[in-house]
Design a protein that fits this description.
The protein is an alpha+beta fold and about 375 residues long. About 35% of the residues lie in helices and about 20% in strands. The chain folds into two domains: about 200 residues, Ribosomal Protein S5, domain 2 (2-Layer Sandwich); about 150 residues, Alpha-Beta Plaits. The protein is globular, with a radius of gyration of 21 Å. The structure holds ligand 2P0. GO terms for molecular function: ATP binding; diphosphomevalonate decarboxylase activity.
């Protein structure tokens, strides 16, 4: 019996300009653009296998070996339906002789076989996804998870489309997932269209543009966070006046400033904007009614350490050499250049000796994309 299967991986990304707020909760359209760095595939990634078979009776999903419900009309169901629609539109509805764009040599055979199956989009799929990092580490897995899901279905369906097109679909699984379709430095452009067709990820620069960039992940706590991002950000949209100021007067300038800093490999400017945006994201969380607190005392102590490190560095005329950033939890991510990694690891271990969850993600990035 015919059986079709594909596997793809996608890495975690960590935002420098934060996404926080939706203007459309169903399509997942953000209130502001954001920009992130995609971490190394070897360290933090989701790997997803999708299989289509005419004998399958329904779509099914396993996360880390445990079967999960695919809720009708939910985010997972939407992503699967959108990928099936794309398969139909891009491959099955086209002329049978029309050549498909095949980017990699080794998938040529599979692709020819897949493109010759005119009914693949009508088969149900079984999907299994694994993370190579403990969920307990408190690192968001929805971004890498939905990006890997969409990438594996794109391979299964031999879709001749760009990562930006796939990001439109990953976005509907989890907003931040759209940025994990690319490696390196990635912007999620908020777009203006009500249908969301211009709310997608674009690569600002590949990893190879700035290979010395590293990320250090300090696992401060592996507790599950109190307020989920999805509900927290909508409370902020409904109640925070500071968020409106941020959307109109802060983020556009920061997107331009950090893109320029990345293009010119100006770490001092990159660090200044990254830390300012982390601070403002936590300020809008605090400005929410009732207030949301994501950082704890250890998070704040790490900020103080990096501020002091940068003060000394600037005094020496070296500019800022480290940038902290915090998402919807207490764990710190410190961006720095390779030459400073050892010194910063030693500093953090000296001041936080009891912390054994300090994880260095060497060799940052790795091109995600669709293989
Ligand atoms: C970010 N975060 O830009 C920001 C910074 C958390 C803080 O993206 O509702 O899990 O699934 O679209 O993508 C977390 O939001 O929320 C997030 P949904 P998501 O990385």
């Amino acid at each position: 019996m015919a059986q079709f299967q594909a596997t793809a991986s996608a890495p975690v990304n960590i935002a420098c300009i934060k996404y926080w707020g939706k203007r459309d909760t169903k399509l997942i359209l953000p209130t502001n653009s954001s920009l992130s760095v995609t971490l190394d595939q070897d360290h933090l990634r989701s790997t997803t296998t999708s299989r289509a078979d005419p004998s399958f009776e329904k779509d099914r999903l396993w996360l880390n070996g445990k079967e999960e419900d695919i809720k009708d009309g939910g985010r997972m169901a939407t992503c699967i339906a959108e990928m099936k629609r794309l398969r139909k539109q891009e491959v099955e509805d086209k002329q049978p002789n029309e050549p498909q764009v095949v980017s990699l040599f080794f998938v040529t055979y599979l692709t020819l076989k897949l493109t010759s199956c005119p009914k693949l989009s009508s088969y149900h799929v079984h999907i299994a996804s694994y993370n190579n990092f403990p969920t307990a580490a408190g690192l968001a897995s929805s971004a890498s998870g939905f990006a890997a899901l969409v990438s594996s279905l794109a391979q299964l369906y031999a879709l001749p489309v760009s990562p930006s097109t796939l990001s439109l679909i990953a976005r509907q699984g989890s907003g931040s997932a759209c940025r994990s379709l690319y490696g390196g430095f990635v912007a999620w452009e908020q777009g203006t269209r009500p249908d969301g067709q211009d709310s997608l990820a674009v690569q600002i620069a590949p990893q190879s543009h700035w290979p010395d960039m590293h990320a250090l992940i300090c696992v401060v706590s592996d507790d599950k966070k109190g307020t989920s991002s999805t509900s927290g950000m909508q409370r902020t949209v409904e109640t925070s006046a500071l968020l409106q100021h941020r959307i109109a007067h802060v983020v556009p300038q920061r997107m331009a400033a950090i893109s320029a800093a990345i293009k010119s490999r100006d770490f001092d400017a990159f660090a200044k904007v990254t830390m300012a945006d982390s601070n403002q994201f936590h300020a809008v969380a605090l400005d929410t009614e009732p207030p949301i607190f994501y950082m704890n005392d250890v998070s704040r102590a790490i900020i103080a350490l990096i501020v002091e490190y940068n003060r000394v560095s600037m005094e020496k005329g070296l500019g800022r050499r480290a940038a902290y950033t915090y998402d919807a939890g207490p764990n710190a991510v410190i961006y720095t250049l390779k030459e400073n990694v050892k010194e910063i690891v030693e500093l953090v271990v000296k001041y936080f000796p009891q912390r054994d969850g300090f994880k260095d993600v060497f060799g940052l990035f790795g091109e995600a994309g669709v293989q």
